[in-house]
Structure formats: C-alpha cells, structure tokens
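Narrative summary of target 7.
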Amino acid sequence: SDYRAAAEYFTRALIADPKNPNLLENAILTQLAVGEAGRAVPIARQMLAIDQKSQIAALVVLADLARQGKF
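Modeled conformation, tokenized:
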C-alpha cells in the first residue's frame, strides 16, 4: 500500500469535509503509518474538538501530552 499517497488524500479530503469522522480517523492513521505523528496530533485534536469519540485520536493526544511532559 502507498501510505504516503493515502495520507495526502485524506488530509486534502478534510479540507472539503473537516468534520467527517471517517476521514479524520483515516487521516490520523495514515499520518502515523508514515511516521508523521506530529501531523497526526492536530487532526486528532480536531476530531476530539467536534466531540467525535475515537480511541486513536485520544491516544495520539495523550502521547503528545506525555511527550511534552504535561501528563
């Protein structure tokens, strides 16, 4: 699979539909798959901000807080 292309696709698709939970979660997963955890964090925060329940999004935000020493 071409995760880089998928990561770009989902990130671009979010411009047109920024509250789509499927796009958000897939964007997070593909960013993680290509080693771009830093790019996954704002997407995860966006997903949680619109009150979408996602274990993946919560885990990404938690890991970012731990990385910053805020957890």
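The radius of gyration is 12 Å.
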